[in-house]
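Summary for the steering committee. The consortium agreed at its last meeting that each partner would contribute one worked example illustrating the joint modelling workflow. Our contribution is presented below. We chose a case with several input lines so that the handling of multiple components could be demonstrated. No manual editing was applied between input and output; the record is shown as generated.
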Amino acid sequence: MKYLCLIYQEEKQEANVPRDEIQKAKADYWAFTEDIKKTGNYVGSHGLQHTDTATTVRVRNGKLSTTDGPFAETKEQLGGYFLIDAKDLNEAISIAARIPSAKWGSVEVRPVWDKTS
Amino acid sequence: MGLGRSAPGVGQDLIDTIESVYRAESRRVLATLIRLLGDFDLAEEALQEAFATEGIPSNPRAWLVSTGRFKAIDRLRRSQREVSEEHGVPQAAAEYKEVADDELRLIFTCCHPALSPDAQVALTLREVCGLTTEEIARAFLTTAPTVAQRIVRAKGKIKGAGIPYEVPALSDLPERLDAVLRVVYLVFNEGYRFRHDLSGEAIRLGRLLAELLPDPEVLGLLALMLLHDSRRAARLSVEGDIVLLEEQDRSLWDRDEIAEGVALVERALASRRVGPYLLQAAIAAVHADATSPAKTDWYEIVGLYDVLLRMDPSPVVELNRAAAIAMRDGPAAGLALIDAILARGDLTDYNHAHSARGELLRRLKRLGEASAAYKRALQLVTQDAERRFLERRLESLQQPLDR
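What follows is the complete predicted structure of the assembly.
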């Protein structure tokens, strides 16, 4: 089964993180990604630019509207994702728990619709 | 779920036999069918169809599993879906272990932490214990549609999110076991207060867990349930009124359950890993050991509460400790502790805090305050038996003190 692991963290806090910790986090992300590539759980991943670069798009009655900023103002913002392949939710949870940001942010694990079901 | 009683040409004996087989076996069979079919709803429908089939089973469990499975295969074939046919019907030798494992799988799946706590309880009572949604609603003071919705959502999540039907890996066991033990104890408490069949079911689950996962907390929970259950005959009068521990006729206590519970406590304590259930069981064992309230080792009980409070701090444990202190050091000492809990704003809506206060004030002959405390407890009480108990206590304040 495929699961999308959505990584939420406080963008505002990131400015306060010392440089060496950021380097450490990058190294941890790299190691984690290599690890789940080896085990065959990795499908894809990306990190996202901050929500101040976001644009929200809606079409209502055929009319396009765009607004500056994210869809919803929340304490933690979507900062990236991993798409993984896992045997079941238990395996997905154990992989999500190893995403470095789980230690300071939150990871939402969402099963992906299976085309056959 | 009852079976049709009006089937033509079927004797009452046969119907009774099928009903009792159903009660005894249906949940175990369901657990196996869920594993074989990988789908809760399909397994339940298959079970219903198996029961609707004619014929007297000589080996009910195997018969139900195989009939249920074939019914489900038929159904799946009709709906053009695939099911693996390699799963055989469990054979006699391996059957017990396999069926017990299936029940354990079902319990762990129903108590998966990805489900909300309310859903865990509702699903366990429905799937593992076989209660109807109406019965679950009644036990938890909510409505049947609410319970039904919780169960539908939980089943939807199990299927959609891929919650596996398995006993967790050893590394995940402590966290996962906590949720299971919490649900089993909740079921026991519901049963202990209102429905004996539920507490019997919780004890059965406790035995199953203890047999397959003899962790000290699992043994502790089973011991705790057995030791509480041992007092069942004494804790209600013939009129169905509550009798306090101190006033119970101890000759009515079930000695077999006490012996089993105490042996489990000793076995678990030998592991030197104590947890909250084991400590509560140890407290219950000290009570069970005493021939009268006066001969109870209150020093030991207070000491066990001290450890419990450090490990699992909660106002309810503090209240129980205060009651033990009152027995050890006198009612004034216990009352001071209860007043401190209430002054902090904890347990102010908990009827047992006010009734315990009323009892201690009564013993201190402060009858006006005792009456006010019992009246406050009466405002908060929801169960009839507890209401009658408090009303009797209130009436007794008018009579001369007997102790």
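The CA atoms of residues 12 and 76 of chain A lie 9 Å apart. The interface with chain B takes residues 1, 3, 86-90, 92-94, 109, 111 of chain A (CB under 8 Å).
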